[in-house]
Write a structure and sequence with these properties.
Layout: H1 2-30, H2 36-41, E1 68-71, E2 74-78, E3 81-85, E4 88-91, E5 96-99, E6 102-106, E7 109-113, E8 116-119, E9 143-146, E10 149-153, E11 156-160, E12 163-166, E13 171-174, E14 177-181, E15 184-188, E16 191-194, E17 218-221, E18 224-228, E19 231-235, E20 238-241, E21 246-249, E22 252-256, E23 259-263, E24 266-269, E25 293-296, E26 299-303, E27 306-310, E28 313-316, E29 321-324, E30 327-331, E31 334-338, E32 341-344, E33 367-370, E34 373-377, E35 380-384, E36 387-390, E37 395-398, E38 401-405, E39 408-412, E40 415-418, E41 442-445, E42 448-452, E43 455-459, E44 462-465, E45 471-473, E46 476-480, E47 483-487, E48 490-492, H3 494-499, H4 521-527, E49 533-537, E50 544-548
Length: 552
């Protein structure tokens, strides 16, 4: 019984194996190469690897899930074609970081580099993100604001917000930073560093401050830079109460060795005398002159260690004296006051007078204008205006003048001098006269110089009525001895001119008789009645003229 059962089971097993192998054998027989059925109905086998890159990835919106990592969808190569594999969530793994796979070309095909969980480094290999914008709070006394920063925690960047730190005297907070070292970034921790007690660079330029108006009894101390906690801090200006006999000396930064030290401001003793020149004199309105007084201009005086303005004043004049203004003079390291004084006036000037002033007196008949001049009075030049003087017959006014004699100037007084009766120098060249056109019945007598009151005077030309059988002979100046004598013009008959051996040239004349002093020239000519004369009438020095003479 037992043997029959075993035989039955073995037969069944063998039959089943034959039935299972029959289809495979049939398919192999049909797929034999070269058969007609294989060439007509069987497709070519799919490529094992793609030769073209995958299509662009599809857009996905996975959102965010705490503790999970989103694995993006990708294209996969299945049975010779691209198949999209959607993204999925993977649970995070501590100390691991998901590395996405990618298609990479190798030779003539693309191969898939599989994604995987990689071990995370204990340090970052990329720089931190840009710092976040934070609102810096206003300053807080006794505290230092520490700005926020990025930190590397659990294999990712984490933002640490800013905070307040208690300030430490004599220390300065130095913020930390990420620094690249080799293939990674390392954190250089922030710390408190000890501040230098003295600056090694000069302070910044002083700030512009509005200087307040003066305040009686106080001194304004300008602001300055102070060195506090390793940095420059501006100390505003302030008022300091004055100290009698003291002067405020401003503080300053001074370089000593490799550092700068502050020399504080202080009150120092004032010297009994000034060491700097006084300020420029103030503008004062000089009052009009006051008879018998001298105006003393204002000046600076040194009182109680400061400059004080002393206003101008009147001083009674002192005869024969001149006021000398005081002055400040530097002697050594200080300025000394050379006091005012009355000085004796010199009797004579040692410098020439100023240029004369312009005057326009005009003309007055019978008068002589005496020009204004500078006179030396009371040790100074005084202008004396010009004036009119009555003419004096036979006299000529001689102006005075200042003349240098030795080291001084002396006045040569003006005076009336006697006028010489005859000139000792020839007359000047005659001025150009307009030539007159002919006039029937008249002869033009050219102008000439005449000697009057010690000077040559020009007498203009005039018309003379023609005389029958007469010829006009022009007058001329003739030198006789040491003087010049005027030979007047005259009429001469042609017959006389032919019979006289000296015809054609001027007849010599006897020497003129002596003329009494101060005698009028017209009277002189009348006394010499045998000669031709030129009688001048009228008030215009020859404006009306009559020429007369005796026929020889």
């Amino acid at each position: 019984m037992h043997g029959r059962l075993t035989l039955t089971l073995a037969s069944s097993l063998l039959f089943g194996l034959v039935l299972g192998a029959a289809p495979e054998l049939g398919s192999r027989a049909e797929a034999q190469p070269g058969s007609v059925r294989d060439r007509r109905t069987q497709p070519p086998p799919p490529a094992a690897h793609p030769t073209d890159p995958p299509p662009p990835p599809r857009a996905e919106r996975p959102g965010v899930r705490r503790g999970m990592v989103w694995v993006e969808g990708r294209w996969d190569w299945q049975r010779g074609q691209w198949v999209w594999v959607p993204g999925k969530w993977e649970k995070e793994r501590p100390g691991k970081r998901w590395r996405p796979g990618k298609w990479e070309k190798r030779g003539d095909r693309f191969e898939w580099l599989a994604d995987a969980w990689d071990d995370l480094p204990a340090y970052p290999t990329e720089p931190p993100p840009p710092p976040r914008a934070e609102r810096t709070p206003p300053p807080r006394p006794g505290f230092v604001w520490i700005e926020g920063r990025w930190d590397w925690q659990n294999w990712s960047w984490v933002w640490i917000p800013g905070k307040w730190e208690t300030a430490r005297p004599g220390h300065r907070w130095q913020a930390g930073r990420w620094e690249r070292r080799g293939d990674r970034f390392e954190w250089i921790a922030d710390l408190w560093i000890e501040l230098p007690r003295f600056p090694t660079a000069p302070p910044p330029p002083p700030r512009a401050e509005r200087t307040p108006p003066p305040r009686r009894g106080f001194v304004w101390v300008a602001g300055h830079w102070e060195w506090r906690d390793g940095d420059w801090t501006w100390a505003p200006g302030r008022w300091e109460r004055e100290t009698r006999g003291k002067r405020w000396q401003e503080g300053r930064w001074e370089k000593r060795g490799d550092r700068y030290e502050w020399i504080p401001g202080a009150w120092i003793d004032l010297p009994a005398y000034p060491t700097v020149a006084p300020p420029p004199p103030r503008a004062e309105r000089t009052p009009p002159p006051r008879r018998g007084f001298v105006w003393v201009a204002g000046h600076w005086d040194w009182r109680d260690w400061s400059w004080v303005w002393v206003r101008g004043r009147w001083e009674p004049a002192q005869p024969g004296k001149r006021w000398q203004q005081g002055r400040w003079e530097q002697r050594g390291d200080r300025f000394e006051w050379i006091a005012h004084a009355w000085l004796d006036l010199p009797r004579f000037p040692t410098a020439p007078p100023p240029p004369p002033r312009a005057e326009t007196p005009g003309t007055r008949r019978g008068m002589v204008w005496v020009e204004g001049r500078w006179d030396w009075q009371g040790g100074d030049w005084v202008w004396i205006p010009g004036k009119w003087e009555q003419e004096r017959p036979g006299k000529r006014w001689r102006p005075g003048k200042w003349e240098q004699r030795g080291d001084r100037f002396e006045w040569l007084a003006d005076a009336w001098d006697d006028v010489p009766q005859h000139p000792t120098q020839p007359p000047p060249a005659p001025p150009a006269e307009q030539r007159q056109p002919p006039r029937p019945g008249y002869i033009w007598v050219a102008g000439h110089h005449e000697w009057r009151d010690g000077a040559y005077v020009w007498i203009p030309g005039h018309w003379e009525r023609q005389k029958a059988n007469q010829r006009w002979i022009d007058g001329r100046w003739e030198k006789q001895g040491d003087r010049y004598v005027w030979v007047p013009g005259r009429w001469q008959s042609p017959a006389l001119a032919r019979g006289w051996p000296g015809a054609g040239r001027a007849r010599p004349r006897a020497a003129a008789p002596a003329v009494p002093k101060n005698e009028n020239p017209a009277r002189r000519d009348r006394r010499a009645g045998s000669s031709f004369r030129l009688v001048l009438t009228g008030a215009g020095h020859g404006s009306d003229r009559t020429v007369s003479g005796a026929t020889q």
